[in-house]
Design a protein that fits this description.
homodimer; alpha+beta; 5-stranded antiparallel sheet
């Protein structure tokens, strides 16, 4: 848990004590850290909690986080398995905020009767905006603090914040985080309308809405879409909307059509070394290492499974 | 200077003392704050320090900040007046990082002899990565701290950070900030290659490169471009590059072709009220006000000059 012990308080550490081995480790670039990573530093995505959002432009891979939003994750899986999203569309792209998708008819006055049925899925859910701190929810703390929360760090690859006094932990709205849109009622989110953060982390949304997971590949497809000209970035004309070919749960896709990915584990000395490599850049370009990092600036490396080196 | 006095330490202030009037002000939404703003809360853009970057898709308006990067601002104006950028292109769009433009031939090995001449402009400049704190450089402090710098706030509409112990102040790499690309040598930036931040604030760049200004309108045109498939997000094929029609200094453009804009001043009680309205959202949607705000989450409102209400 004490990854933070690896980060000295001085601005320009030349050597850093490895919290696990208690031996000095030399400064490294991120490439060096990844190059030296072991197969056990990586985990494969769980196909039962991985969504493929397929657009004409390509595939977006989303990892769900049932530890934080179990009801929402289950409801989304029910919708996906009923092919709810197939043929729906990206409806909203608000610059420096979110890209959002769902059923165009669901949100329009006078069009509700044309909205697609949610089938077996619930139309309302208990708000899963935060959850109790618990032993089974890991937390690897970042050392540099946070403007919004008492503590921030990572939990199974998700950027999270927590408040030990309140006994709560929640997923943070960093770039690429996926949430379930809702109306004013806290129970009005169902997962039938989803958004992803495409700009500066809108942390004011934290604890106000259910975050359900994170885009681990394909963010550029959602972030580079034309911005909508209507209020809140909604597309004004139906033909501006970006059609969704399909959304599938990876486990339901034939193995040959899956996108096998590995994510760097966030509870390892390798990840701690990666963070240190980003807090203090070592390449020739940087002249003044920041000595700090913000939660939403930490990259979470992903690679194709077949990139992993052969196991001994 | 003590705008921070308006922000109580408690998480949910129902009333807030106005630091200037010492009278309680009721909680307001941003729309209410802007609706109640006075003409003197706004300033018009200085046409002598405003660039129009014209693309086929529309116009990007950039405000230069000569108080922070006088040599770079002057060099960029020399380049612009020599029509240096006209017919050049956007070369690089790296997801969640930057969009960058300049001369494709300038960066390519073996192509340097095809690079466009900088004319009267300098090819190297002293690094203007930070500057001394000075009375003539205003600073309105934000109340909630910062992960990277001892203090953050605004100076003439630019997000800035400062270190009083070091006596330095610098512009911060928030969304929409424009900087002058450089190679490894700190003097190698000239303003002939410019970038704009299109994702989570890459604050590790602060004090490592010259920030020259900020996009005040048209960011969506630069942020929604297809990401480049090459290393660092460079476009791999010349026909993927986005042509620049022209870059002009506003003062050199006929008045009828200018884009007259007003920016909300950042040193006023109105701006302090706007910040408070964003720290603690008052609309029906938000259930848990953040009580905090990050430097790069603060919107800096802009409006067409003809939107300003008639003066009494």
């Amino acid at each position: 848990m004490r990854i933070a012990a690896c980060f000295p308080a001085v601005a320009l550490p030349l050597m850093c004590m490895n919290a696990w081995a208690d031996t000095p480790v030399p400064p490294q670039t991120m490439q060096q850290v990844l190059g030296a990573s072991k197969p056990t530093d990586w985990r494969t995505l769980d196909p039962d909690n991985t969504l493929y959002l397929d657009l004409a432009a390509g595939r977006v891979v989303i990892e769900l986080a049932p530890a934080f939003a179990p009801l929402h994750a289950a409801n989304i899986k029910t919708l996906v398995r009923a092919h709810y999203f197939d043929g729906l569309a990206i409806l909203r792209v608000q610059d420096n905020f979110v890209t959002q998708w769902g059923d165009p008819a669901a949100g329009e006055a006078g069009e509700h009767d044309k909205a697609r049925s949610l089938g077996e899925a619930s139309s309302t859910l208990a708000p899963e905006f935060e959850r109790p701190i618990a032993r089974e929810v890991p937390f690897t703390r970042l050392p540099d603090g946070d403007v919004f929360a008492p503590e921030v760090g990572f939990s199974n690859g998700m950027p999270v914040a927590r408040d030990r006094r309140a006994g709560k932990i929640w997923m943070a709205h960093c770039y690429g985080m996926v949430g379930a849109g809702r109306d004013n009622a806290v129970t009005s989110g169902s997962g039938a309308e989803l958004y992803v953060v495409i700009g500066q982390a809108p942390r004011q949304l934290d604890r106000n809405i259910a975050v359900v997971g994170r885009v681990v590949q394909g963010m550029e497809l959602l972030a580079s879409l034309p911005r909508g000209g209507g209020a809140l970035g909604f597309y004004e004309k139906p033909d501006q909307r970006v059609p969704i070919k399909s959304v599938r749960l990876a486990v339901d896709v034939p193995v040959a059509d899956r996108t096998p990915l590995e994510i760097l584990r966030t509870d390892t000395p390798t990840f701690a070394a990666l963070i240190e490599s980003r807090r203090n850049r070592r390449d020739d370009w940087y002249k003044v290492p920041a000595g700090k990092i913000d939660l939403c600036n930490v990259p979470i490396p992903v690679r194709a499974t077949n990139e992993s080196r052969p196991k001994p």
